[in-house]
């Protein structure tokens, strides 16, 4: 099937006339790079419950266990590369008058793929900070199991710079993401189960303001019934094909 034939005219029409496009990503976009998702078979949380790990209570109760989990994920992420889905989104920054990428992922793969117009709603595993003095502590290395990194400035316990359950999202990132969603002509929701709030409210926020809502996922989600278009398949295949199709249509129009 040629790329163009897999996309509907309403979708291509919406993209070709779009002034503002927003892409919203979850763990699914990194799955083809080899980063496990949160839910589903082989997922990160298959063994643990989120509350046992991704929460301040869990961290204060057992910082060594939480750091062991993040060290494991940092090891996985350090060994993988951005996939064609990440690269296609980085390229889309030059395809539309205004393109904004909002991610729930903490794996830094969008930045490594070249995305610049990026909002990280849930932080970034490459960053850490001191729970006592707030000092940013880059590239924390957990050398052995049970180790808990301490702040070089004050000796306080260092934590990953990620948003845990029950914690507020970074205000500037959230506000910018809401503004982008409310102004979107097309909103692409990619590789997310859309169950974690308030991030999961962005797609419907966009749709309520008139955006053409597109979902890219390997299976339906609670949001699928609200989408104007459901592109069922791996984002690493669909997003490059979408980029090529829009670029090709643009070239034809300009001829
Ligand atoms: C907050 C960072 C306010 C850490 C994460 C009851 C109802 C509603 C809300 C709540 C509630 N009880 C509590 C809440 C609030 C809570 C929440 O939403 N809980 C949920 C579980 C019900 N939210 C919060 O706590 C948020 N903060 O609300 O603060 C507040 C605070 C204080 C006082 C007052 C108010 C903070 C939430 C942030 C949590 N941190 N991550 C870390 O990563 O370690 S969440 C984490 O899980 C991710 O960031 C992401 O958001 C979420 C995972 O979701 P996905 O990314 O979608 O991944 P998932 O595996 O689920 O799905 C992958 C999808 O990809 C699947 O659909 C799959 O089919 C698809 N896929 C797979 N392969 C591919 C693919 N698609 C395409 N191509 C492929 N190849």
Q: Tally of extended strands?
A: 8
Output the CATH homologous superfamily of the largest domain: TPP-binding domain
The coarse overall form would be elongated
What strand order characterises the main sheet? 3-2-1-6-7-8
CATH C-level label of the largest domain? Alpha Beta
User: What fold name stands as the CATH topology of the largest domain?
Assistant: Rossmann fold
> Please, what is the oligomeric state?
single chain
- Give me the Rg, rounded: 19 Å
Bound molecules: ligand BV8
Give the H and E element order: HEHHHHHEHEEEHEHEEH
- The unreliable regions are none
Q: Output the structural class.
A: alpha/beta
Number of helices: 10
- Calculate the terminal CA-CA distance, rounded to whole Å: 25 Å
Q: Overall pLDDT, averaged?
A: 93
List keywords for this structure.
255 residues, alpha/beta, Rossmann fold, SIR2/SIRT2 'Small Domain', two-stranded antiparallel sheet, 36% helix, 17% strand, binds ligand BV8
What does this entry show, briefly?
This protein is α/β, with parallel strands linked by helices. The strands form 2 sheets. It has a 6-stranded parallel sheet, sandwiched between helices. Strands 4-5 form a two-stranded antiparallel ribbon. Helices cover 36% and strands 17% of the residues.
Describe the protein.
With 255 residues, the protein is an alpha/beta fold. The chain folds into two domains: 1-34 and 82-122 and 169-255, Rossmann fold (3-Layer(aba) Sandwich), CATH 3.40.50; 36-79 and 123-162, SIR2/SIRT2 'Small Domain' (2-Layer Sandwich). 36% of the residues lie in helices and 17% in strands. It contains ten helices and eight strands. The chain has helices spanning 9-17, 28-31, 50-53, 56-61, 63-78, 84-92, 109-113, 171-182, 202-208, 235-254, and strands at 20-25, 98-103, 118-120, 123-130, 158-162, 186-190, 212-217, 229-232. The strands form two sheets. Strands 3-2-1-6-7-8 form a six-stranded parallel sheet, sandwiched between helices. Strands 4-5 form a two-stranded antiparallel sheet. Strand 2, helix 7 and strand 3 (118-120) form a beta-alpha-beta unit. Helix 6 packs parallel to helix 10. The longest helix is centred in the C-terminal third of the chain and has 20 residues, at 235-254. 39% of the residues are buried. The chain binds ligand BV8. Ligand BV8 is lined by residues 26-28, 31-32, 37-40, 43, 54, 104, 106, 122, 162-168, 191-193, 195-199, 216-219, 221, 234-236.
